[in-house]
Amino acid sequence: MTVDKNKLDELVKSWLSIDMNPESRHEIEQLHISGNYEQLDRKLSKRIAFGTAGLRSSMESGFSHMNDVTVLQASQGLVKYLLKKTPTSIVIGYDHRFNSQRFAEILASVALTQGVHVYYLGSTDRGYVHTPLVPFAIDYYGASGGVMITASHNPANDNVDKEIADSIEENLTPWEGVWDVYDNIKKGVQKGLLSLAGDEVTKEYLKGVKEKLIQDNNLDFSFVYTPMHGVGYRIFKECLDLFHASTWNVVQEQADPDPTFRTVSFPNPEEKGALDLAIETARKLGYKLVLANDPDADRFSVAVETKGQWNQLTGNEIGFLFAMYVIEQQKEQDLDRVYLVNSTVSSQILKAMADKDGFHFQDTLTGFKWIGNKAIDLQKEGFKVPFGYEEAIGFMFDLVHDKDGISAATIFLQLYQKWFSGGKIDVTDKLEAGYAKYGWFKDYNGYYRLADMSTLDKIFTNIRGSFDSKSPENIGEFKVTSWRDLTIGYDSSTVDHTPVLPVDSSSQMITASLKLPGNDNAVVRFTCRGSGTEPKLKLYIEGKSTINEQSAKEIAVKCWETLKQEWFQPEKYNLTEVKP
């Protein structure tokens, strides 16, 4: 590997001129002294980027990773961006992950040096918060923006990632006094610029849960809950105090915040095996329901025992149950003023429900900045948006314009009480009844891992080059019935062929609906797109059948195999196929 040593010498000099952390300074110094330029290149040459996921990288020294320096630089860029608004204020929260509190304090220090009012969700007795408390606090205080130190960021505005990224690049040199972190925080408290807001915001959040989300506070069934070694347990318990609840148990081994996540290989409730300990706990107790949050409690998952077998529900199955429950709560005469929203890679069963029941449906791009802001826009037009979701177990209700695993748990408990506590039907029965009414929908989602990120553009260029017009007539045996390409800005289903969803020429995304000639009982829809954070080509497929689930699954699987053969060709492009 050839590296530019002169360039790296300058980068080392730049790093040492601004890093005040003795550990990371020492690491870079030692690598330089030992002449380990390959490691220096990995750590310093490619600056960590700010995007839809905020800052995301491993915690190491160097401009490429999460550390005091890069957090400070990002904080300066964000604060400078927020200063365009007056008066300027910011909400800051953090969870239990390594260095989260330290990074939150650095951000607070930067904001305070610029006279920005800081609503700090940490306090002497309530340091950790669940991620949705930040967007809730932004709304509550009318703050200019907010940051959650975990894996999430929450600007108050919608589509400002590029502007914030540019602002960061323009503000890389530490401002005067920003490294005096604890002195700045102390002065901020004395001047009234820093408010320890955790207790107040939590109190208001719980008030909102009670007033907006709880309609039936009687629960007469038993369940197990796991916060997955995260921060959800405390706020979940406080929400449960709003119910007249029967027996419930937490998974003790996973109850307390633990940044090592010692009982799971990957702390994501979606991952295979992540709920094994919770299910085993429920089995020993004789309970039939498990509720789970991810570590920062913005996502929610469910496992149920039905007919003697334990099953973990998919995000789309949970979303369907929520949608049926929420629509049941609406007055029939008001449905024409109701919208449900989900991401375009999530199930189209909400659209089928809307067509049959008379409410409205809107899909958005992937991510809750799109779902949440679409809900806000619709509410400004006078519509109700009681529910939105994405298939990656993110669910939004009236309380927060973002995914919230605690709100989701609160609603699911009432849903379970209404439909299943009596024991006459179970979750499988309810889903089957819903499919019988709206059609059987079966997703088949997976991805291809890329050996080289440049391969993604090559694949999509070759796809578009395989047909003469803006869209193909056929893909293998399938006939194309609709085609939307959000990279080039074409949609066959609109009058002027202009997509309703935002076009982005810098990202690859194609959605199409297909059918097999001679088969009027089943159709299939897919979206393929590049991942915004990983070297992956993601593929979301959903079959729909008027007959049964098997028919929907068969056409979805056939679609996967057809796209693999016609488009993705793993051997040609050196892809690793990861099926569902």
Automatic annotation (TrEMBL):
Keyword annotations from UniProtKB, A to Z: Isomerase, Magnesium, Metal-binding, Phosphoprotein
InterPro entries registered for this protein in UniProt: A-D-PHexomutase_a/b/a-I, A-D-PHexomutase_a/b/a-I/II/III, A-D-PHexomutase_a/b/a-II, A-D-PHexomutase_a/b/a-III, A-D-PHexomutase_C_sf, A-D-PHexomutase_CS
Top-level taxon of the source organism: Eukaryota
Annotated Alpha-D-phosphohexomutase alpha/beta/alpha domain residues: 48-159, 203-305, 315-417
SUPFAM superfamilies recorded: Phosphoglucomutase, C-terminal domain, Phosphoglucomutase, first 3 domains
GO cellular component: nucleus
Cofactor annotation: Mg(2+)
Family annotation (PANTHER family): PHOSPHOGLUCOMUTASE 2B-RELATED (PTHR45745:SF1), PHOSPHOMANNOMUTASE 45A (PTHR45745)
Protein name in the entry: Phosphoglucomutase/phosphomannomutase, alpha/beta/alpha domain I family protein
Classification lineage: Eukaryota, Fungi, Dikarya, Ascomycota, Saccharomycotina
